[in-house]
Amino acid sequence: MDIIISAFNAVLHLDKHLGALIVHFGSWSYVVLFLIIFAETGLVVTPFLPGDSLLFVVGTFTARGSFDLLGMFILLTGAAIIGDTLNYAVGKYFGHRIIQRGGGRFFKKEHVDETHRFFEKHGGKTIILARFVPIIRTFAPFVAGIGEMNYLKFITYNITGALLWVSIFLFSGYFFGNIPVVKNNFTIVILGVMLVSALPIIFSFINVHQEKKIQQK
Q1: Are 112 and 147 in contact, with CB atoms under 8 Å apart?
Q2: What pLDDT sits at residue 62?
Q3: I want to staple 126 with a disulfide (CB 3.0 to 4.6 A). Which of 36, 46, 122, 207 is the partner?
Q4: Per-range mean pLDDT, top range of 20-34, 66-80, 83-97, 120-134
Q5: Are the CB atoms for 96 and 148 separated by under 8 Å?
Q6: CA-CA distance, 12 to 193, in Å (whole number)?
């Protein structure tokens, strides 16, 4: 719980944390950002890491000249693609054993179950749609691996989803993040980004709850 609270606080103040990161690490900031996006998409034990909000904030700093736009776009898109690919492989070769053993402290079986329901509703394109849904984004490739989705189909959805996800949030931050009204209300904007990102989960939860009510009648 402490980790989740710390992560939430860090997300709310990403502008300050990213500024400090740039000051302390300089060009190595590219590597750190690559690793964060890679871990958020590629490791089922780190779904709490920032994704959408981080991309948006990176976009704002890129507009200020802190990063190269094309270089950052290629780097973060690559991190998202590689992360999903690793996650798929882990699900395919180790997924069943991880679930049977309970997954340890950070692995939540209910996240897998929720992702299964997402797959049932949206099919293979879940890999694309999941890019825009926190937690589901982390578990979708893992579940695809468990279900042994055709790899060619998976990698096509993987690349398409990564391009769309990074483009939308990185370029939104680049073009709108430094507008005075956004810059002066940055915490509210980040909360808005997080809320919009969470809407699919909220709607999915409501639908599941309603379906259970109908079945109980």
Answers
A1: no
A2: 93
A3: 122
A4: 66-80
A5: no
A6: 10
3-class DSSP state of 128: helix
The DSSP string of 153-214 is HHHHHHHHHHHHHHHHHHHHHHHHTTSHHHHTTHHHHHHHHHHHHHHHHHHHHHHHHHHHHH
Cα–Cα distance measured from residue 22 to residue 26, given in angstroms and rounded to the nearest whole number: 5
Backbone angles phi, psi at 211, to 5 degrees: -60, -40
Tokens of 174: 């680049």
Please give the structure tokens belonging to residue 141: 């490739």
The pLDDT value given to residue 130: 86
Tokens of 61: 């700093």
Listed by start position, the domains of the chain span 2-216
Measuring CA to CA, which residue among 88, 107, 94 is closest to residue 46? 107
Task: Read off the pLDDT of residues 172-187 as tens digits, 9 standing for 90 and up.
Answer: 999 988 888 887 787 7
Please, what is the Cα angle at 132 between 178 and 15, to 5 degrees? 30
Length in residues, the chain? 217
Distance CA 214, CA 193 (A): 33
Q: What pLDDT digit, counting tens, does each position of 50-105 carry?
A: 888 889 999 999 998 999 999 999 999 999 999 999 999 998 888 778 777 765 55
Q: Report which secondary-structure segment, H or E, holds 65.
A: none
180-208 in b/e form (b: 16+ CB < 10 A) is: eebeeebeebbeebbeebeebeeebeeee
Backbone angles phi, psi at 13, to 5 degrees: -120, 35
